[in-house]
Structure formats: C-alpha cells, structure tokens
TrEMBL record, chain A:
PROSITE patterns: ABC_TRANSPORTER_2. Keywords: ATP-binding, Hydrolase, Nucleotide-binding, Transport. It comes from Enhygromyxa salina. Belongs to the ABC transporter superfamily. Pfam families: ABC_tran. This is Putative ABC transporter ATP-binding protein YxlF.
UniProtKB/TrEMBL annotation, chain B:
Residues 57-183 form the ABC-2 type transporter transmembrane domain. InterPro entries: ABC-2_transporter_component, ABC2_TM. It is a multi-pass membrane protein. Its main location: membrane. It holds the Pfam family ABC2_membrane_3. It is found in: Cell membrane. The chain crosses the membrane at residues 24-48, 60-78, 99-120, 140-157, 164-181, 187-207, 214-234, 263-282. The keyword Cell membrane applies. The keyword Transmembrane helix applies. This is ABC-2 family transporter protein. GO terms for cellular component: plasma membrane. Keywords: Cell membrane, Membrane, Transmembrane, Transmembrane helix. GO terms for molecular function: ABC-type transporter activity.
Amino acid sequence: MSTSSAPVTIRANAISKVYGEFVAVHGLSFEVRKGTVAAFLGPNGAGKSTTMKMLTGYLAPSSGSVEVLGKDPGVAESRIELARRLGYLPENGPLYLDMTPRELLEFFAQVRKLGEIDKAIDRVVQQCAIQEVLHKPIGKLSKGFRQRVGMAQALLSDPDVLILDEPTSGLDPLQIREVRKLIRDLGQQKTILLSTHILQEVEAVADTVIMVHEGRLVFDGSVDELRDGQTLEDRFYALAGAPAKAKAKTTAASTANTETN
Amino acid sequence: MGIDWSVIRAIAKRELGSYLGNPAGYVFLTLFIAATGAGAFLQPGFFARNLADLALLNKVMPAILMLFVPAVTMNVWAEERRRGTDELLLTMPVRDIEVVLGKYLGALGVYTIGLGFALAHVGVLAQLGDPDVGLMASTYLGYWLVGVAFVSVGLLASMFSGNATVAFIVGAVGCAGLVFAGTAPWASGIVGCGLIAGVATLIWVAVQGNTDSAGYVAVGAGVLALIVWLTGTFESFQDTFGLLGVDRHFYGFGEGIVRLGDVVYFVGIAVVLVYLCTFMLGRRHW
C-alpha cells in the first residue's frame, strides 16, 4: 500500500490524444505513487487503453507529457531505459499465435537481452501457472491461458512497473481469482496500473482509483473516497452516466481530497 | 550506444520462422520456383538460342519480383498491427532501427531462401549445356540485389496499412514504378509524378504527425508534377526519373558485369527506405 510520501512512479501531465476530429483523451492528468495498485476505471471507450499506450511509449500524445519512473517515453533513449523496467500487457493480450509459450518467452527474453533466460522463464511460468501449455501452440490455447501467457510475458524482466490493460478480460471466475491474487502479491513490491471496467476488480485489488469517462478524468482518489458512502455501482453510474463536463467539480474535489490526504 | 545485433538476429529469426512455419511460405517458394523456371525455360526462344544462360529470365525477372517480393513483405507490419503484437514489440527495450532491420533481414532471408532454391535453374542449364560460372554468379547477385531493393519497398508499403492486401498492392505498385521507369518516356513520366506525390505525402504525414488531408496532398503534388512534365517546364523530367529504373541497373549483371554504381543503386534504395521506415516508426503516430 502506498503513502502520499512515496515517490511518484507514473505521471501524466495534461495528455491528449486526437485522431482527426475525434478526441480520444482530453488533457488527462494523474499520478500513481510507488508501491500502489491503481485501477484505471472507466466504461468501454473511455480512453483507458489509449492512455496506457501513451504511458508505455507506443503512442505519442498529441499534447501534454508523460513520465514513468522519471523517464519520458517520447524520447528514444529514455523509452528504452524505461522499457527495461516496465512490463506491459496490452488489451486483448496480443501474442504470436504460431509460437508456443516457451518460444514466445524465449523470444522476448532475447529481445529484452535478459541474462539468465531459463531462470526468468521458469519464474514466470510458475507465477502464471502455464506449465501444462508451455509447448502447445498459442493459437490453440484457451483465452484464459493466452491471457496468462501475456501476463508471463509482462513479468519476464521482473519489472518495477506493470501496466495491465484489462488483465482479467475473458477469464473464468477461477482464473480471475488467481490473476487478482497474483496482482495483489505483485503489488507488494511493484507499482501497478491496471485498467478495468469491472467494479469488483477495483474493490478486490486496487489501492487507488483513477476514473475516466469520454477521455476526461472524472475521479482520482482512494476506493473509499470513490464509494463516498454509496455503493461503487451507484457512484460509477453517477460519474459515467452523465456527460463528462458536468463532473469537473467532482474531479476537482477528489483531487483536493487526495492532496490533503 | 550502438545497434545490438543480437536483438536484430532474434527479430529476423522470428520473422523467418513465422514465414517458414506457415504453409503460405511453402506455396510462395513453390510458385516462385515455378514462375522463374517458366521465365527461364518455357519461352519460345530458349532452345532456338542454343545458349546455356538465363538471358530470357533476366528480361522478366524484375516483373516477377515486383509481384513476389511484396507477397513476402505484405504481412511484415500488417500482420503485427492486425494482431496487435506490434504493441508488444515496440514497447520492448529495443531501438526502432533494430526492429526495422530485424524485420527487413527476416523478409530478405525468406527471399534469399527462395532464390537459393531457384539455383536449381543453373543445374538444369548444366544438364543442357555448359553455363559460365562467373555469368551465373553475377546474374544471381543481380537477382538478389533486386530483392534487396524490393524488400525495402515492400517493408515500407506494409507500414501503411493493417491490411495485408492493401500492403501487397501498395508494395507491388511501388516496385512496378521501379520496374517500368526508364522502359519508355511515358512510363518514366508517370513514375516521376507518382514519386513526387509519394514523397510530398510522406513529408506531409511526417510534419503533421497524422494522415489527415494526406490524400489531398498526394493528388495536389501529383497534378503539379503532371503539369511540370506535360508543359515541359522541366525538360529533363522523363530522363531524370528514367534513371531510377531497375532495368538499366540490372542489365549489367545479366551480362556478367558487376558495376559498383549498380550495386550502390540497389543498396542505396534499401538504405533510404529502411531509414524512412525507422523514421516513420519513430513518429509513433498511427
């Protein structure tokens, strides 16, 4: 669990992403402190994945700036240094379907220039429980196993920061429980930002919540602050049901609360 | 810090593996050997000439390659983008140039393997006559160098779309421009207009950071180039763009002559286009 005195690991400064006429992310600003599991909450199409892509350096923001572990992913050298300490699970867990999990992990270990490849692979295979499918083509694996292989890939370099885009998407209830437990365990030492639109997930794993709607920040604070004496579901509907502009006050108030705490 | 060849090797190996682990790769190799074999031996003049060489294949080889090479490269980026795996690759601690070179060398490796199988044609010639070893070596070096250039054209084309068919068409049109430039004045003029439109569009996309209005820029630059060409404002328009034609640079290799200028032409195209791919990748604006 983080404290407000812990150093900031992830910082977004008024980032926007514009595609032609469409503004996917509007001047988003937030911080995630070291040792925090932060849930990036929002309905589908809120701009969560786009923001995560900007944090990892895959996409360049149209305006604003990003800093992760003190590095700007927009600068080539900085991005490479950051990538060594960053694990990323993109949305829908894209993988090379023609490879086996073992081949895939070996490939990314080589690309990451890891020293003890076998040791690193053994560790993530244990963590993500993928021993039984290690030599089967990924294309023939179930969605749940694919997602776990994606998690194993993200954990391969034992990163300081994990950015996970809907890590429990497509998993069955048992697998969801395992992945959530893994995230909680990892959250003891690492900074984790995970996107989700599932409220139970927020309650189960998150220390803090950053909620976006229509590309705008609508809440930034702890889970208790989000609850605000109501059920999370009611608060989610209240924040995501109305146009984002109307909720500027909520955001400002929540930010003020966070800073006070 | 310089380029890390171990990363490039890993990416190239993965490209090669993905191609050769796929039935489509073997279909390509088979069709490539069949097409080049037909180009070499099934033409009416082959036996009448009574010469153990590949002169007839040399005439059609650039045209064969302008279709086959984009078929190899069409998936290089398009497939990554379609599956979303580019997101993994481009968030690894690797330089853009390492990714581009890895993919380029992987695709070139597939073409080189295809060309290796096509060495069987020399075996056929050896059965029929006594082919000149030096001439065969320079001819195959020429084929390979055409591939060196065309793979870079296909790689760049593959970056434009997540759709492999579009990538193939764009790649084939790009290679066709190089094949037809210099063959006739009108062809050189059209290639010149296309090239000017393409360069203007690339500059526009690079400066803007997105593809908004890129179509207008392409059409505008193309029309402007057409006016310059047809009104004779720049008299050497056709001759200048005719110099870009593959034919005039490939011809010498088929005659057993290896000119440094020709090697520089093919390698130069690859260097420029690989650099362009790296530049576009560095923009991270798709």
